[in-house]
């Protein structure tokens, strides 16, 4: 039986191949853990990635030049 390809999942540009590491102090880690527990976030990697990218995209939107 042939596998059906899901759109976007086989795109080379979307593969996560670049690694970045973050270090948090104890208070920051406690805050992250508390937040994840309160809001039932199981995938912290996904949560952190989406949070960082959304902050970046919001900043790009704020800095976007306007005509007026």
Characterization of this structure:
This protein has 68 residues and is mostly helical. The chain has a domain at 26-63. The chain has 2 helices and no strands. The protein has helices at residues 26-38, 44-63. The model has no long low-confidence stretch (mean pLDDT 88).
DSSP strand content: under 5%
What characterizes the major β-sheet? none
> What class would the helix/strand composition place it in?
mainly alpha
Q: Please give the share of residues in helix.
A: 40-55%
As residue ranges, the low-confidence spans are: none
Number of helices: 2
Categorize the overall geometry.
extended
String of helices and strands: HH
Average residue pLDDT: 88
Number of E strands: 0
| Spatial extent as radius of gyration | 17 Å
Gap between N and C termini: 58 Å
Keywords for this structure?
2 helices; single chain; mainly alpha; 68 residues; 0% strand; extended
Question: Concise description?
Answer:
This protein has helices at about 25-40, 45-65.
Secondary structure topology:
Layout: H1 26-38, H2 44-63
């Amino acid at each position: 039986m042939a596998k059906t390809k899901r759109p976007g999942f086989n795109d080379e540009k979307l593969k996560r191949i670049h690694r970045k590491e973050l270090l948090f102090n104890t208070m920051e880690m406690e805050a992250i853990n508390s937040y994840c527990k309160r809001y039932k976030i199981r995938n912290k990697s996904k949560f952190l990635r989406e949070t960082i990218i959304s902050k970046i995209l919001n900043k790009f939107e704020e800095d976007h030049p306007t005509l007026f």
